[in-house]
Structures are given as C-alpha cells and as structure tokens.
Amino acid sequence: MPQHQLILGTAGHIDHGKTALVRALTGIDTDRLEAEKQRGISIELGFAHLSVGDCRIGIVDVPGHERFIRNMLAGACGIDVAMLVVAADDSVMPQTREHLAILKLLRVRHGLIALTKIDLVEPSWLDLVEHEVRELVADSFLAHAPIVRASAVDGRGIDELKMRIAEACRAVEPRTRHTGDEPFRLAVDRSFALKGLGTIITGSVWSGSVAVGDELEWLPAAKRIRVRGLQSHSQEVQRIGRGQRAALDVIGAHHTEIGRGHVVATPGLLAASRRLTVRLDLLDASPRPLKNRARVRLHLGTQEVMAGVRLLAEGVLAPGGWCYAQLEAAEPVAAVSRQPFVIRSESPLQTIGGGRVLQPVADRISRNDSETIGRLQELACGDDLARAAAAAYFRGAAPSTGLVLCRDADVSIQRAETVLKQLEKEGITISLRAGTRHQRRVHRDFYSQLRAQVLTTLSRLHDRSPLQTLIRIQTLYSRLRFLDRELLEGIVERLLGESVLVGDGNGIARADFSPALTQAQQRLHGRVIEAFREAGLRPPQATDLSREFGVGEEEVRPIIALCAGQGQLVHIGSAMYLHREWEAKLRTSMAEQLRKGPGMTVSEIKDLLGTTRKFAVPMCEYLDRIGLTRRVNDVRVLANPLDPGER
Question: In this predicted structure, what is the pLDDT of residue 15?
Fold first, then answer.
C-alpha cells in the first residue's frame, strides 16, 4: 500500500495549461463537459490520479477563469499540496495572484510551481518569467518551492515534475497524512445518480476513513445515510481514507437533495450552525476596509453562502489587518475548529480575505464583552490542552465527548480522552453528576458562574419566604430554566457535598440561612410544637390550631412548615404532621408488633396505636413509603424482617 496518499490541487490563470499538464502527467483528460471541450477552458472541477514511487496522489484540476472562482474554491478545500501553474508566454496574471492568495488563506503549506508552455518562448524569456514568479511567491509557502519548466506538447520537464510532486507529498507533516483513525469527514463536491446504483457523491477525504456498510451523518440536513459502495479513481474498494478522492454510493439521500456544499461525517462529529466565531484576515490587496455588518460570500469547504460579518471590538478592519469576528450565515454550515475559509466581496466578486474557524457552533458574543473576546485567542493557539480548556468554557453546559472535542478544539481522537482527563486532573473542568449513569464536565469558571446563580436565586427565594426552611428543587428549577434539570441536580449535589447547602428529599436551603421570626411568630412557633407533642398520634391540622390559638390559617401554615423544616415535626402525608418523638414511637411500636406476628390490618394497627382510621391509614402509607412496612393484600408486614436469631 502506498505510504503517502494525498490530494494535489492545481491553481493558476485561465489558459495557462493546467488541464493539458494534468493530462501529460496522468493520461487523463479532466475536462468532462462538452462545453469545456468546445471552448477549450475548464468550467467544472476535474479529477485525475497519479502514482509516483510510494506516493498515490489524487489530483483536483480547477478552472482558472475569474467567473469560476467559486468552483476553484470548492476544489481547493482539503488539498495537501498545491501546484501553481504559470504559462511562460503570459507570466503572472490576475488569477495567478488570486489563486495564490486563496491557497494562502486555506493554509496550504506545501507545493511547487510549474512553468508551462516553454515550447512557445525563448530560453532567455523563461528566466524573466521565473524572476517575476519568485517575486510573486516570496512571502508565501511557495517561497522556496521548486520551479519546473515543462511542456505538455513535447513532454519536456514532465518526468522532473513527477519527481518534484512526489517530493512535495513526502514533505507533508505526518499528522496531516496519517489520520485514518480520526473521525471521517468529506466535503461533497459533486452528486449524481447512476442507473442500478442510486445516489453517488464525490469529494476529497479530509480525515479518517470509511468502509462499505458504514453509517454516516449528512450535514446540514442532520440525516443518517449508509454507504453501499465505494470507488477511488474508478476502482471499487472496501475502504477509503484520508488523502484520497472518493465516490460513495449512498442510501438515504436523493442526488437532488445532497450536493456540493454539504458534508458527510462520522455521526456525532459535526453540528449545523448559522453562526461561526472566526479569526478574520483581510488581504493587503482588498480594495477597501471591511466594515462591521458587511455582507460577504463565505466559502467554507465546498459550500458558498452569503454571510454577515460582525467584527468583535473593531468598527472597521483595514486591508492587511485581522480581528476576531462572527459570521452570520444565511444558511446552516458545518465546520470544525481551525478549519480555513475564504470570503469574497458581494460586488464586485473579488477575494478579500479569509481565516480560520474558532467556534463551529457559536453563541452570540457582545462586542463589548472584552473578557470573552480575550478568551478567543486560546482557541487559536497551538496547545491541545489550552484549546480544549477554552472550548469547554465556551461550550457551557453542553455535553462533552471525544468527538465534540475533535470538532470544537481540533484535538485528535487518539488524544481526546487523555486531554479530557488532564483537564479534570488539573481542576480546569469539574465533573457533575447528570442522571444516574453520566457525568457532565464543565469548565471551572462556568461552574463558578452557575454556582453563584444558584445561590443568588436561593437567597431571593429565602427572602420571599423567610419562614420556609427548605426550597423545593422544582421551585428552584422554575427560576433557572436555562439549565437542564439533570445539570441543576448535579450542581445542587456538589453544593450539598461542599456543605454550602443543606437539605433532603423535600428540598434544599443555603447553609447560612435561618428563619427570621417576629416575637409573635416565635410564641406561635412554641405553641405549635407543644400542641403536636400533646396530640400524640391524633395530630391537629392547621384549621384546628387556627381556632385554638385565635389566629388565621395563613399564619399557622408557615409555622407548621417551618417546624417540619427544622425537624421538629415530620410530614406524614397530605396535611398531616407528627411530632418527631411520636413519629419515632410509631416506627418502634409497629416494628416490635410486626415481628411478633404474620401481619396486621389497618383496624388492628389503629387499635395498637390508640388512634382512629382517619389517622391510621396515612400513617400506614407513610410507613410503606419510608420502607419500614409493605402491604400484602389487606395486612402490613415488615418490609425487611430480621432473621429469628436477630430478633
């Protein structure tokens, strides 16, 4: 198997011989359309392949006409090596410059230069053209790239060009080349139907690999599709990986629905969004500054979509400058962290800048929020841990997985779990229980914000109900609807563990909270406790105490709830409470009696307790609920009776 599988893309002005050069290198004519053959220019993307030694190279041949820059951009995304083609008889032309600017914006790092049509000029002229080309590429990734003089007509330089292409491919960084274990991602550049097969989509594999039978997610539709068959360079294969051209026969998408601009990927990796946070660079050659709220054409992957630009902390971006920005796309887009993009002016059509995605799925950032804007630089840095920490902060309460870390922080899947554990080990993230089986990792700063909001909300609830010792979780949740219930319960559980909160199954309270009673309420509080102590197992209700004490029920009920919250009374059910001493006697009496016999009816229980059926029934239900007894037909038995030797 070839050690180096990469994608090479051509670039250059119209009629500079890109297609003829590819044909001379591979024997493949990449012009497929009749209009292309008749007019002698490339309109659509063309594809070929070349094997040189241990290199197997997929070639994307792009059109050079300025009217088809959008097609060039679709083909240039995802390439590993660029071949800038300059015709010796024309030298550097407008699209030579624009194509080179696009390659720089797309962060292409490796390439070479082909000087074509050398059969049409004198050798002395070639030296002048080479000099002009060197000046053009002096500040680019091609500054030290070889220039190969070649002719597609007489074959001169073709063998050397193949050798130089192989050298450029071998120079590509290993992390870029060897990503077969990464999540799969492919930007669709073409779709069509074949009789007997169905929908075929093609594209360059950006990362990972896919096999026949695999399930993929189609974005931005967020639908699942299945791979029925695979081809690479017209050969049927069982698996296709990074650096290869791929044709996928898929089930689950009609060819009229899926097409250029869409992405297929490992399920769970990508999410469609209309807002991206980016680092935006404006070209020196941009004809004018870029204003806040400007409309541009966004080229992301193979997609072209109109977008509004929100400059963060800047009113105007001058040519040659950069800033953080948010792009508001007219249609959903799917991207990953640090993915390059290009922007072109709405009118006239001209490449004016580009940059890298920092947040593929972003919330709106205020232009005055300097703290949040300052954190964006961490998303662009070269350290995996720092990017992952920043991504965790921006992700807020959203669940974190290895795939999400790949998307939001550009961390390889092999390192994702290690990085997640390292974040927790260093205290950068905190694990909160979410449900019975899951943990939710949140950034410590985000947790601090949530913690403060929970405590502040509880304080307000305490202020509104100064006699209510415990606040129900549901009441707290109703005030914090932006949090999901599981996350809120995880925060509460952690605060209980920190002894910042106190509570039980009935509710929670701030540990530093104590009811504020007036002198009259303090007297009523003592009388209520004494009344329940004297009543025994025939406890009073609020209406009874209201009549006895000569006060309103609205004054008695909060005091009863307060006594229950303090543990003086125990809530049995509905509006029934027992003094804690009598609740203990109830449990002891029932347990001792039930150990002696096979069980007791409600009638027998009321006689044992010296009470009435009105009180005995809720008491039995309470004992069932706390797990002391259980009902078997019409009798109560101990739920967990002791062995005879333990009685």
Answer: 84
